[in-house]
Specification:
This is Sulfotransferase. Belongs to the sulfotransferase 1 family. It is an enzyme of class 2 (transferase). One of its GO terms (cellular component) is cytoplasm. The structure is a single chain. The protein is α/β, with parallel strands linked by helices and 272 residues long. The protein has one domain: Rossmann fold. Helix content is 42%, strand content 13%. It is built from 13 helices and nine strands. The strands form three sheets. It has a four-stranded parallel sheet, with helices on both faces. Strands 1-2-3 form a three-stranded antiparallel sheet. It has a two-stranded antiparallel ribbon with strand order 8-9. A hairpin with a 3-residue loop joins strand 8 and strand 9. Helix 3 packs across helix 10. It is globular, with a radius of gyration of 19 Å. The chain starts with 16 loop residues before the first helix and ends in a 6-residue tail after the last strand.
């Protein structure tokens, strides 16, 4: 594949000379797909993603009301983003039945962008005008120790996640050399954070979200500062949000069938 056809975070053509020098001093390898990755602060990144991480660390100015959704790749990130948007819109008196609901007009990843892949991918001082109204919503795949000093509030949703390719990927996963790995260190960073400061780090498990969605969404709403009233529960407000944010419903929306996110990734990629 032509390198220019790869998603921007996978390529290595947009990194500064300073970052190139740093990369030359870091452990590096080629992943199972032939992409270059390097290990920074205990976590493996594509080169361009590392540029975004460094930009974030240099330039991010947190606000007390910021909410950062942290997850390991492919562990329920899209669902968590949709639920968070729906809960906060509800707190603004925006019903899940409204025809102008944000989730009907934008992909969850467009509403809540990744710090290292989207917001800070090109600069340490991006234009954050669209995030002027609190709370600002961001997401990340970075482990907690990379963002801890700059993250006022974080949600964490984690999940245990062609023959030769599968074998190579499995080996990388077990060795901890996969993208954003090692897996267990990533998970434990947020688990420990939730124990040390439960008011600022909420740890959620994908399995529990699937098994008891009503209880978990109520727990999420409390953490976000917009708990459900008994009247709302009795009127079906909670169930409407779960239905709006179901992958079945999100997959059916035209906005999630066309267009791109992360600059070059098709929106439908997140709804197989």
């Amino acid at each position: 594949m032509d390198p220019k056809e790869l998603p921007s975070n996978v390529r290595d053509d947009e990194i500064s000379e300073e970052t190139k020098k740093l990369i030359s001093s870091l452990p590096s390898r080629i992943d199972y797909q032939g992409n270059k990755i390097c290990k920074y602060q205990g976590c493996w990144y594509f080169y361009n993603t590392l540029q975004g991480v460094l930009n974030f660390q240099r330039g991010f100015q947190p606000q007390d009301t910021d909410i950062i959704l942290a997850s390991y790749p492919k562990s329920g990130t899209t669902w968590l983003k949709a639920l968070t948007v729906a809960l906060l819109e509800r707190s603004k008196k925006h019903s899940s039945d409204d025809a102008d609901h944000p989730l009907l007009y934008d992909n969850p990843h467009g509403i809540i962008p990744f710090l290292e892949i989207d917001v800070y991918s090109e600069s340490s001082s991006p234009n954050l005008a669209k995030f002027s109204a609190p709370p600002r919503l961001f997401s990340t795949h970075m482990p907690l120790h990379t963002i801890h000093a700059r993250s006022p509030q974080a949600l964490s949703l984690q999940d245990c996640v062609r023959v030769s390719v599968l074998e190579s990927r499995f080996e990388e996963f077990c060795n901890g050399t996969n993208y954003f790995g090692p897996f267990w260190e990533h998970i434990l960073s947020y688990w420990r954070g939730s124990l040390e400061d439960p008011n600022y780090v909420l740890f959620m498990r994908y399995e529990e979200m699937k098994a008891e969605p009503r209880d978990q969404i109520k727990r999420l709403a409390v953490f976000l500062g917009c708990p459900f009233t008994k009247q709302e529960e009795d009127s079906g407000s909670l169930d409407k949000i779960l239905d709006l944010c179901s992958l079945r419903n999100l997959r059916s929306l035209e906005v999630n069938k066309t267009g791109t996110v992360h600059k070059q990734c098709g929106a439908q990629f997140f709804f197989p």
